[in-house]
User: Fold this.
Amino acid sequence: MARQGPTTLEDEESCPPPPPPPPSSHLPKPISEPPLRLDSFPPPASSRSQSSLENTVPFPLPPRIRHGSCAESERFATSQRELTDADSRVVLVGDPDRTDPRLELSGNAIRTAKYSPLTFLPRNLFEQFHRLAYVYFLVIAVLNQLPQLAVFGRGASVLPLAFVLLVTAVKDAYEDWRRHRADRIENNRAASVLDLSTGRFRPKRWKDVRVGEVLKVLADDTIPCDMVLLATGDPTGVAYVQTINLDGESNLKTRYAKQETMSRAPDAHPFVAANFIRCERPNRNIYGFLGNMEVDGKRVSLGPSNIILRGCELKNTAWAIGVVVYAGCDTKVMLNSSGAPSKRSRLETHMNRETLLLSALLIVLCSVVSVCNGFWLGNHRDDLELSQFFRKKDYSDGDEKNYNYYGIGMQVFFTFLMSVIVFQIMIPISLYISMELVRLGQAYFMSGDTNLYDESSNSRFQCRALNINEDLGQIKYVFSDKTGTLTENKMEFQCASIGGIDYSGGNAPPQGNDKVPVLDVDDQCWKPKMLVKTDPKLVDLLRSKGDTEQGKRAHEFFLALACCNTIVPLVVETSDPKQKLIDYQGESPDEQALVYAAASYGFVLIERTSGHIVIDVLGHRQRFDVLGLHEFDSDRKRMSVIIGCPDKTVKLFVKGADSSMLGVIQNGIDLDIICATETNLQTYSSLGLRTLVIGIRDLSRNEFEEWQSAYENASTALIGRGRFLRAVASHVERDLHILGASGIEDKLQKGVPEAIESMRQAGIKVWVLTGDKQETAISIGFSCKLLTSEMTQIVINSKSRESCKKSLQDAVAMSSKLAAPGNVLTGAGSARSPLALIIDGTSLVYVLETELEEELFKVATVCDVVLCCRVAPLQKAGIVALIKNRTDDMTLAIGDGANDVSMIQMADVGIGLSGQEGRQAVMASDFAMGQFRFLVPLLLVHGHWNYQRMAYMILYNFYRNAVFVFVLFWYVLYTAYTLTTAITEWSSVLYTVVYTALPTIIVGVLDKDLSRKTLIKYPQLYMAGQRDERYNLKLFILTVMDTVWQSAAIFFIPYVAYRHSTIDGSSLGDLWTLAVVILVNIHLAMDVYRWNWLTHASIWGCIVATFICVIIIDSIWLLPGYWAIFHIMGTGLFWLCLLGIIVAGMVPRFTAKALTEYFMPGDIQIARELEKFQNVNAATTSEISMSTFSQQP
Assistant:
């Protein structure tokens, strides 16, 4: 048996630097924010001077090679190539006219609407005529306009199709009008633009903003376009932005203005006009930016930390000034927003196949009639002169001329076309109206379902697209975002292991007055916004002020938690003016949880600047200088910070995953502590907690100087900078002393593990696509039970096309080997080893839209679980398309942020969660709800009901109309193929409107084959929809065969009974009309699962209504067949014929239905029997013998 655990397929560190990735619509993983180092910032104040630092550090710092942001610019540069004129854009700061003299660049106006007044009619009609039935009825309407073929009135033949097209067009127009309204609101928002003539900022509409203009954005304002920062309200040039609309994260991100531009007056006209920016052309990469800026003849590099993107919000920064580099459709958020596609349900798509088959059947019937008509004309050519319909000559005017006769050949052709018109209802146009009404009713009940109501957000289920309700019952793949979708994006510190001792007794309430850290600042009380439960023993250990070894470890452990992060403390006002809250903002929820934990234990981070932090340590405020910082990356799987402490020592604090940390712990020291910590880590992991190991190292003067020199050289490298920085970090992060480990609980949404397990049992594969780090995604996977310890993990982290290709080939070989059955489980047979594929966004750059897609598809479809980490919005759509374009399986995407919009729109079904990440996902979705767990009742209950109802309704409508057409066909065969009908025109019109329309709609909305409790209890029942059990070609063929038999019974029983009588055709027509209506309604009644008063009223009421209508029609003396029904209905033979038709027509179907359910029952039938006879609510057994429950499609 293969060893269970992660199998990593990734590059070796020694590989040469890869070439830049090829142009692609799929994006690499995010680029980390710039490190905070003391020598990275200019010394505007004495507190940041070198002499100030020398008072803290016990040795003098080496002379600096570079000052200001010149070194910073090179350090933050992320490209390995130079920008050329061919692939760059030149922006003259403050001069849009010279930047874009020919107005070739995109303006800032956006357009998300699908139609314009000029394109609405042709485009909407083009989309509607994707339904082949509409094309068919258009041809019929055109044919009926010809005088030789005018069977019905010309206007009447056009009205049904025109009505359906009009209703759909009005609905589409209303939806697009809402999009136009949203666009107008967005484009007419006000922005502050620098006026070069006055040097002041003036308001300007967003849509009028141009590339090159300088904008000013105030706190809490939305960024109108992509712009490079020039200055901010913070003296260090820092700006905090919230990127909910880009990556779905609500935490604040830090962006920086260059010190070269910060030192200039932002509204100085000479400064603005004398500088320019050269940057890359617009692209979809929201995590990268490459450019440079000329300032006083010096070239300053620009990176992703210097640009703020459209859709972000400025937070906790008074103002920010920037120059527009990308506007409107060229902005990264718009380039990542794919257009809203027109979605059609799978059943409706499959209806095209049945429509073609019915068209072929129609052609056969018409051909039979026309050919037989030709033979009849040939055999009776001598009698045509006196024929009512084929009189050859017209003598009315004295001149002999042809009259209504064009020869046998043309008569055969005309007969064929007229047959098409008479038999046109073989393809029911009323079906589409019925489907829309049924979907509307289904949406009403879904919206009112209390099981889909979210109390926390006070939001009900929203059905935003009415045309794909039934697709919810056939989903095979669910693509889910992580942050805010699976989780609440809230993490909580649970326990700690310090010095090998487990402190997991966090039961003390955080509100204890003697335990709450309260800071006295300028006669105000400051305290952390959130507190976690603390362990009393650990609190006593920290506050005992003892000098024990364990106390020192605990002190350094929480000091590391407070220092080793990029958290920004923000002071928040409260209703009490003397009380303020400290809110910790950062990019990582893990860091927030750790810093809040440190604050709860008395280590309160209260201030962070460019080069130092201030921490209140157990009531004593202390300043720590940040001398260097290595941020987390997926190669090292740890982060570190070098701190200058008040006691004039320099310490290195490191935290990271246990797999990376335990390898850099100093050998031969504290072995007992290491072993105990590993045991505690195993315990924490088994509880589903996210774990981190904390280490420390004291740096000597020589070690610090060596690190700083190496770091300076690596930071200024033009090629391979990232690899060099990782090497520097790895060199200093060694010989650590272990302090302990932490356990954090990622707060999953309620019911997520249970929902994923139910979907797994239902045969639905759940894939998680997230922009988070790989380790975070894996941890969440274990927490929500998506990943299990029995799974073999295949990890692909590649940084070049060649290595990615090799990794995928190895993965294919490995998955083929592990997926083969080979493990005997408890004597029950063999089962394959479960597999999980984990791949990052960088690897997907080289896979999607290349020849490697097929390799990825082979691996992914074999695996039980797929986790995609560090993926950009369009990559999410690419992953969905990978499955959607290569299989017939239905896909569903669910997310809550704007970064999920492309994925939601690409999937067959898109669901938006109305949570904390804005409403972009909801606005782009087909359905909206409040919690991930609602997927279970939505899919397993409503999806199953909707699918089985709609599938049956479509087949029933085909059957209902085909029976009527075949009755007309049999009659034509006995009336010299003249296409006359015994059934009145009014009955033909009312057949699909009054006689049979309402019951199918009522059943389509209300019928339930199984109860909610049964569907939830046995998720395997959902597989019926995945297997197309209720709508497939076999059922269609059987339905047509049944149709032929029933129509024959309807026609021939009265024909045989009355063939030698004197009854007229109109009376027989009334009998056939009533027989058809009674038979098709009894057919429907036989298949109803749940009866209610509406079902009874609709089915039996329509039969009664048919009798009434026939009587009324035959009572009007102006219409043909006057009093016909009264001539025939008064005889016993009439009622005997009706009884014989019902028995003869329904016995075959009843027999087949009884035999199938008794000898070959399916899962649905078995579950219904269980409900009926065993009372499923009280059943105690969990094992039920069902024919396909154990089968995985």
Notes: Residues 376 and 976 are 7 Å apart (CA to CA).
